[in-house]
Design goal:
Layout: E1 2-6, H1 10-16, H2 19-28, E2 33-34, H3 35-42, H4 46-58, E3 62-67, E4 74-79, E5 81-86, E6 97-103, E7 110-120, E8 146-159, E9 166-178, E10 190-196, E11 199-206, E12 231-238, E13 241-244, E14 247-250, E15 263-270, E16 280-283, E17 294-302
Parallel strand pairs: 1-5
Antiparallel strand pairs: 2-4, 3-4, 6-17, 7-8, 8-15, 8-16, 9-12, 9-16, 9-17, 10-11, 10-15, 12-13, 13-14
């Protein structure tokens, strides 16, 4: 979950000015729901619920995505904020805006992984089994919502929607991660290195690979003894450097990581020379404790609107 900070509060005020939308937020606070199930729970038509959900989306409170269903695709609604902060105008305040992208776990663009390894969609293992890196090239890998490997790397391309007149202030990358142990082991540290646009921005040590208790969104068919959930990791690159979970890990700032290139490259890696080689598991929407994939949030100032 993320905090929504908005200097343009009108969409938020409108979103919260409805008992129906408040009830939708309360329902989605328990778990993501299919649009038609929301309509049924509230005794309203699909078209009315769609109108309400669109207003919640405009306020950045709810995200929707199409998922496979019985006979046809269905729209899944997910609450993406657990609190809001209203910032009232003051003298000298400069409005800040966001570009947000969600990168699905299976949409990696490069990899070199060593067993143990594998990947799965919300419905099945991808490929004919575990520990064969060739299945990372299986056409179905784009549907992956969990993947894991012992050593090596995985890379993702992230779209950059920054315009020339927009001045970047902070990039936040959020993802659910854990180690990769045989079955699971909560005491299995792993040093996970992050590279952004070719710059080694920092390292985070995962404490373990968590199993035994089913992840909040991990499907029932997934073996309870295997990796079930991870920890939500926040990487922030701003004017002061790069921070992971609030701790400064490098001096790379928002201005010296080639932030204006047309597309960004994010690499997650367990290196051969790492002190703790304990693998990496990445959880996406449909696995783990957080219903999200890799989220990129760029905060910027729009200079053409600054007086």
């Amino acid at each position: 979950m993320e905090t929504i900070v908005s200097e343009n509060n009108l969409p938020l005020f409108e979103a919260l000015a409805s008992n129906v939308r408040i009830k939708i937020i309360e329902l989605l606070g328990q778990e993501p729901m299919i649009m038609k199930d929301l309509a049924s729970a509230l005794g309203l038509s699909n078209s009315i619920i769609t109108m309400h959900v669109k207003k919640l989306e405009r306020a950045d409170l709810v995200r929707t995505e199409m998922i496979p269903g019985k006979g046809a695709s269905q729209k899944l609604c997910t609450l993406v904020a657990d609190r809001v902060e209203l910032v009232f105008p003051s003298k000298g305040m400069i409005p800040r805006n966001f570009h947000i992208s969600n990168i699905s776990i299976g949409h990696f663009t490069d990899f070199d992984v060593k067993p143990t390894c594998g990947l799965a969609s919300k419905y099945k293992i991808i490929g004919d089994g575990f520990d064969d890196p060739r299945y990372f090239l299986d056409p179905e890998r784009v549907d992956a919502k969990i993947l894991w490997f012992l050593k090596g790397f995985i890379s993702y391309k992230i779209p950059n929607f920054l315009m020339p007149e927009e001045e970047p202030e902070e990039l936040e990358l959020t993802m659910e991660l854990a180690s990769e142990a045989p079955l699971s082991n909560e005491h299995w540290p792993s040093d996970i290195s992050f590279t952004f646009n070719g710059f080694p921005i920092g390292k985070w040590t995962s404490p373990g690979d968590f199993g035994g208790t089913r992840g909040k969104y991990t499907p029932e068919w997934w073996n309870i003894e295997m990796n079930q959930y991870g920890l939500l990791v926040h990487i922030r690159i701003n004017n002061d450097g790069t921070f992971i979970e609030g701790t400064k890990v490098s001096d790379y700032t928002i201005h010296n990581v080639d932030i204006r290139r047309l597309q960004w490259d994010l690499r997650l890696e367990v290196r051969e020379d790492a002190k703790n080689i304990g693998g990496l598991t990445i959880y996406g929407s449909g696995f783990g404790n957080y219903y999200q994939d890799i989220v990129s949030k760029l905060t910027y100032i729009d200079r053409k609107n600054v007086k």
